[in-house]
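so the lab meeting is tmrw and i was supposed to have these ready like two days ago... anyway. pasting both below. for each one the top line is the aa sequence and the line under it is the C-alpha cells. i havent really looked at them closely yet so no promises
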Amino acid sequence: MIDKIALINGIAEKAGQILGGEKSQTREDIERNIKALVSSALSRLDLVSRDEFDAKAAVLEQTRMKLEALEKHVAQLQYNHAEQVVKDAPDTIERS
C-alpha cells in the first residue's frame, strides 16, 4: 500500500529542492502548503491498496465463473424442457 504521508512529504521535499537554497521561511511555507494541497487531493480520491484490488478481482473472477456455470445449466434445462415438450406434443394431439 502507498504510504500517503511519505508520498506527500516526498512531493513537498522535491518542490522545496526545486526552489533551491537553504531552508527559509518562504520555502517551509511553500512545502507546508504543498503538503496540505496534496493531502487534500489524495483524500478526495477513492483509492484502494493493491492487495485489496487483487482480492476484489479474484472474487469477481470466481463470480464470473459461477455465473457462466449457472448460465450453461439454465440453457441445458431449457433445452431439456423444450425437448420434453416436443416429445409430449403428439400425445396431447391424439388425446384431444
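ok protien two:
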Amino acid sequence: MWLSANTSLEPVVNKFGELFARERMRLLGDKTIAEYVARLNRDSKEAMNLYQHLSPPETWLFRYVASFEVLREELQKRDRSQMIHVASLGCATGSEPFSIAATALSCGLTPSHIRILALDYSDDHLAHTRTGRASALAQRTPIPQWAANWLHPTPQGQLELDAQGMAMIDYQRGDLSKWKPDRAFDFVFCRNVAIYLNEQSKRRLGRMLDETIKPNGLVFLGHADSTIFTGTNMRRSEMDHAFAFCKHEKANDKLNPLALGLSQDPWVAPFIQSSSIAGKPAIAAVHKIISTTSTRRTDSAPASSAGVMAARASMDVFTRAQIAADSGHLVEAEKLLLAYLAQEPTAIQGHALFGCVQMAQDKYADAQRSFTKVVYLDPLNGLALLSLAAIAELGGDSKGAQRLRDRAARTVVEK
C-alpha cells in the first residue's frame, strides 16, 4: 500500500518492490510491515533506497547513437542567437546529458548557446552526474568520432566530460509524475522512463511532453515508450532509427485495428482477443524482458570502422542484435534475431527482444506472437505478460489487458 500511495510506478513493478522490502525488513530487524512503513515515512534515505531498487539507473554514453546523430544535425541548423533548451528527463547517473553536451560541443556550441536540464528523482544520481564522469560500465558502445575529443579518459578508466560541456548542464531533482517545466524545450530525451510508470502517470507524461516541446522540436523516446503519445499531437518522425517524435497540428487519428493487424494466430488466441481500438495508453515494460547480457567496449578511444566490424564479428549473434536494437537499427536487429532463433528456437531472450523490435516498428501482431512464445516457454514471465497486456490495451480489449496484468502480478508470488 505504501508503494502505491507514494510512488507513480507500475503496480507490477511495485510487486517486485514488496519482495525487496521484505528482505530489507529482515536486514533492519523490522518484524512487521507496519514497522517498515513507519521507517519509510521517517527515513527518506531508506525510501529512496527502495525507489532506486525498483527503477535502477540503467544508462550509458550515446545509447541509441542514431538519436544523437539526429540531434547533431538539428543543432547545426538552429539559430544561435536564440538559446537552445534541451532536457534529459530521468538522467540517472549522467551518461545521457554528457552525450548531449558532447554533441553540442562537436557543433561548436558553447554554454551561452545551449542549456541542458538534467532532471532525476534521486539526489545520489544527480550528485554522480555533477562529477562529470562516466564509469567503464557506461562505455558499452564506441564513442562517435566527432564526440571523442570532448570525453577525456581518466586514470581510473572513466571518461570525463570537458569543462565546457559541464558548464552547459543544469541540475534539478524532480518526480516526472508531478514535475511542471518552467520553459519550453527544443529537444527532450525521455528514454526508457515511461516503462516504469503507472497508467495515469504515463498519460500525464505524454500530455506534458506534448505541451512542453516547441513546434519544431523533437522528443526522443525508448523502444517501448511511444504509447504515452496516444491521443496527443505527437507523431513518430520520419528519421530512421532515432525514435524521435515531433508535433503535428492535428491530433492523432484513431488507430486502425486492421493496421495493427491484431490476429487470431494460434499462438496468440489463448491470451489476446482483438476488438475495436480504444486508443488508450498501454503498459510498456518490455525492455526489462531482454537478457541483461552487457556489451562492452575494450577501449575508451573512438573505434575505426574496421575495428567495429572486427568487434562485431567476435560477438555472438544475440549480443550483436542487442547492440543493433539499442542503436536503432531495427531491420538489422530483426535479421540477426531471425538467424539466432533459427539456431535457438526456444531461446526466451531471443523471442523477447524480437517482440521489442517489432513493437518499436509498430508491428503489433508480430510482437504478440513473440511475447506469447515467451509466455509459452516461461509461463511465469511477468514482463512478457505485461507486453501482451499493452497490445491488448491498444486493441481496445481492456478486460483482457487487465486479466494479463493480474496474471503478471501473480507470477511474482508464484516465483
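from a quick look at the 2nd one: The longest strand covers residues 213-220. The longest helix spans residues 11-28. will dig more after coffe
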